[in-house]
User: Fold this.
Amino acid sequence: MNYMEVLEAEDNVLSKVLDSQQLLRNAVKEKSWQHLMDMISAINLLMDEFNELDEKRAEIASSVNEDSSDVRQKLSVVRGKLVRCRAENKALSDYINISRMFVQGVIEKALPQTRSKVYSRNGSIVQNKPQSVLVDTLF
Assistant:
């Protein structure tokens, strides 16, 4: 593969990742957990494919003149898509962390743990993580 072919392949993979991230966002909104897990697996496979292509691009880059306008333009498109992918990952990660902390706080208030307090090295109280709770929703 030459440099432009690798950039084209990276561009195609990142387009698929962006589409998958939109589907992932929709799965989170709709609370479709099975679809969510499927989308996460698909995105991970696509990112593995992108990483392999990026390694090839890095190997080829030393022998290629990146001053060509076509190469610079395609490289900027790929970098722009990569930034959008990272921003979407950060937004989803923040959403998951906020949701996890909210649920953890609700569970801690509803089912307080009877364990003793745990202190960190600097003397502050470390928040205990709640034990697993199974809720029977059949009744």
